[in-house]
Structures are given as C-alpha cells and as structure tokens.
Amino acid sequence: MNAAKARDALLAGPRGLALSVVSITGSIVLFTLTVVSIGLIPIGVGVLATPLVIERVRAHANFRRELAARWSGVRIPSAYRPVPHRPGLAGWVQRCTVMLRDPATWHDLRWMLADMTAGFATALLPPVLILYMAYGWVLALGVWRPIADAGGDWFLFVHVVSQGTAYAAAALGTAMFVLGMFVNPALLRGHFQLARALLAPSREAELAQRVDRLTETRHDAVDTSAAELRRIERDLHDGAQARLVAMGMNLGTIEALVETDPAKAKQLLAMARESSAEALTELRDLVRGIHPPVLAERGLADAVRALALRLPVPTDVSVDLPERARAEAPVESAAYFAVSEALTNAVKHADADSIWVDLSYGAGALRVSVGDNGKGGARTGAGTGLSGVERRLGTFDGVLAVSSPAGGPTLVTMEIPCELS
Amino acid sequence: MRVVLAEDLFLLRDGLVRMLEAFDFEILAAVESGPELTRALTELEPDVAIVDVRLPPSHTDEGLQCALAARRARPGLPVLVLSQHVEQLYARELLADGNGGVGYLLKDRVFDAAQFIDAVRRVAGGGTAMDPQVIQQLLSRRVRDEPMGGLTPRELEVMELMAQGRSNAAIAERLVVTERAIAKHTSNIFVKLGLPVSDDDNRRVLAVLAYLDRG
Lengths: 421, 215
What we know:
Chain B: Residues 144-214 form the HTH luxR-type domain. The structure holds two protein chains of two kinds. By secondary structure, chain A is an alpha+beta fold.
C-alpha cells in the first residue's frame, strides 16, 4: 500500500464523519421542511415557502455533487429546469409550479430519504473502522476494569470482562483498522454512487437538457453568422465596391480626355491605379477577417504563429499537435478567432510584456490556452469580446474559461471537442 | 533572362507573361499547378522562378513548398514568391537558408511594372526583394522592443529600404541624395547595430534582415 492510498484511506475517516453529519441533519431537516411546505400549499403559505425550501434542497444536493467529484471523482450530473424569476405573487406561484413539475425535485426528495438512512450508514463506516481501534486499545490499557466491574460490555462480538478479552478487543479493533485502510475509499465512493443512482437525471431529462442547449447554440450560431454577413456586406459596399465605382468613373473620364487633355488623363490614371491598390488592401483586410489565408494554407498552428508574429508584444507559441494534423475548417476557424480575440485583449487591456499561447490535442478535444503576465481583470460578461468567443465555441460544444484576478495574470483556456485528420 | 512562372489564375498569368516579355524576358514555362512547377524547375533550369504561394491541386501553400524544395535541391536558385497576403512567417522560411536570391512580394506590386521588373532582376542576380509590408512588420516590432541601437530617423529610413533589398544606388535615387551619402548612412547603421561590414550588397541585406528577425 503506497502513501497516497494510505492517506486517502485515513482521510476517508474525517470525510465520512463530516458526510454523516450532513446526511443526517441536512437531509432530515430539509426533507421534513419540504413535505411540510408542500402540505401547506392548500392554505397558501406553502406557495411562498416551497420555492425557498426547494432552493435549499438543491443547494444541499449540489454540495454533495461537489464533494463527490472532489473526494471520490464521482460525477453526478444535474438537470434542474431553469427557474423563472418574475417578481410578485404571480412569480412565486409560477416558480412553485415549475419546481414541483420538475422531476428533479422528486429525485431530490427520494435521495434525501435514502441519504438519511443508507447514505448515513455508508458515510459513518469509515470513521468507525478507524476509531474502533482506538477504543479497543483504550479498553486494553485498563479501562476494561471499571467496565468489567459494571458487568462488562460488548466490543462487537467480544464480551470484555478481563484483561484477556480486552486484548482481544484491541486486536479486533486493529483488524478493523487494517480492513478500513483497504475498504474506506471504496465505502466513501459507495456513498456517492448511491447518491448518483438516485440524483442523476433520467435519460429523458438529460436529452431535454441537451435539446435546450442545442437550440440555444443554434440560435447563437445563426445570429452570429447573420451579423457577420451583414458586416461583410457593409464593408464591401462601403469599401471595395465604392472604390471600383470610382475607378470605373475615372476610366470613363480618361477615355474622354485621352486625346483632348493627355496630361489630365495621365493624372486620372494614377488616381485609378491608387484606387485599385486601396481596394485590394481593403479586400485583403476583409478576407483576413473572414478566413485568414494562412489558416487555409497552413492550418491552425502556423496561423497562430503568424498571428503571434504580428503582435507588438513578444508572444511565445508552443504547439503539441500531431504533425500536419488538421481539424475541420469550421473548428479551425472558430479556434483561430478565439485565440485572436484573446490575444487582442491581452495586447489592448492587460498591459502585459509577455504573452504565451499553448495548443494541444487530447481526449478528443482541442485545447488552447492563452496567458499573459498583465494586470488581469478580464471578464466574460455580456457584450465583451470573450462572450462572443464563448458563443462561437458553443456551436461546437466548446467551452471557454477565464481566470483573471485583479493584478493578473490572465489565463484564458478553451476546449473544443473535435477530430483531427 | 529565362523565367519559369507559376500562377493558377489565367488572367494574372497571362498579364505577367505579357509584362515579362515586354521587358525582354524569355518565358520557359508558364504553369498553373504545383506538380507542373516542380517538373519545370527541375527540368528547365531557369535563371529565376516567379511563383504564386497558393497553387492547385491542394490550394494551400503548395507554390511556396515547391519553391523551398527546389532551392534545397539547387541552393541559391532564384525564386520570387508572390502572394495576396504577406506573412513574416513565410519570409522567415524563405530567408532561412541564408543563400539570397529570394523575393517575397504582394501581388499588388505588379501594378508598378518598372519596380516589379527591377525586383525580378535583383532576385535573379542573387539579391533579395522583400515586400515593404514585411519589413514594416519587422521594424514595428523592433522599434517597440528597443531603440534600435540609436539609429537616426534618416538611418532608419535607409535601413528600411535596404532591408527591402535595394542597392545603395537605388536608395540614393529614391531618397534623392548622392550614393556617397547613402554609403555613409549604411556604414553608420552597421557600426551602430554591431553587424559585420561587407562590401557585397546582398550579404549586407541578408545581415540586416537577420538582425531584424532576431527579435
């Protein structure tokens, strides 16, 4: 048995103890409150109390979800329907109905019943297995005497009445401790697995949640691409198109002037050439904004490298992708613009003097991190560039996380599930 | 001078052929795809190749890759790469072998026939022709990083033109000063940046480019 395993087994003691306290008090109190407030709905008070109580129940269940993930690596999915937040009495009634109609609410109730009994027992076993050894040795070291005088006591199946039986109790306690060292982590996991069995949403609820998410991201995708097309249309209309019109006009005038006023015609020709150069520059910038040419030619890694070379702040790019591997074009493009936005933020707002980008692929997802040593304070709230990135990644089930405490450093990480080819 | 030309868009290819022929270049081959280019470069031994970065069939940076491969096979083979966009990344790859005889220009530069032809001749002669945009990207990075060894604004201007691959005579003409004045500026630049002084125009340009890219 190695040190990490032993540490886990010993830690299971206090953890189990804490869990058993939370199970017995939290679940009993909240279960009772829920039943009472639902019972009071007919006389009106329950309508006000029920949403409040159910909110506490959800917090209670979510706390257990968190502990399950942190202590035993057990992931318990949750699928509460979104609760509307309308003000006033009508809002309370609506909240109450939505919550009572949500199957997750009834799953929570069912779980609390099991949690205060079976859950409590499984949580209590690890500390008991550890503490019984101490009790056995306390008996063996002399405490057996007053107990024997009072008629003896049962240490599990050993009747402690003499030094000999007290030693037997100590040996038994030690055996329990050894057993605990092996089974404690499993017992704790068992506790969480019981919770998962009862709390995890049904397949139907999970699918419903997935449909909601897909509907939302699809709306976002449609909105984003419509806005993007609108921007491109405007840029073309005001830019290259207008310049071409001017050029055509100039050429028409030149045609008329070429024999009567060659000097003037030459001057207009120079203007026409300038217009065409400007139109090209504008088109080039526009193309870069739609799909950067390096991305098409070289893929994500080199496109990010080329991007880094354009930045005024020294930027270090490290890439850990299979050689010449490419993701699908839309994924590459989303990842590129996400990196681009994160880099722009770092340059514009962070006051950083060094930036780094890290690209890697693992477990079926492309991972991108952008970090800087600037002053931090970046946020993803509505209207920020990063929230746009978040929505864009959402279309691919990608996620974005920002860690940017005031004072820095900032770290933006993105993960996009995709396949490389 | 014998040229191999690779450009997939018919209008541009045709235009370039006409322009080059007008300036007395001999077009050995005008091709439109990567494999054809590779064949032409190995079989025809041109004095200079003019290559579009993006070529069929892959429509990626096939032209650039063919040019780089041909230069590995025949070091110093003069290649002028044309593109709709310029990237420092590509410029660095072209310059990496330190052999010279390299050009990298935006396609817009063909608007000015005289300057473009000058660039082709320079590259064919073992010199370099870097697009002003590439040089500006390099410079803007360096200037922000450090004061560039205390160059005067005039010296910076001269260095920018030199990095594009122009000779002292061409710079003098451009800035409307004597060639002697430019020679003085360039030697000042080399002393201030701590670069080895050389009489060879091409060596000097490569040294400046390497210095700029080091940041």
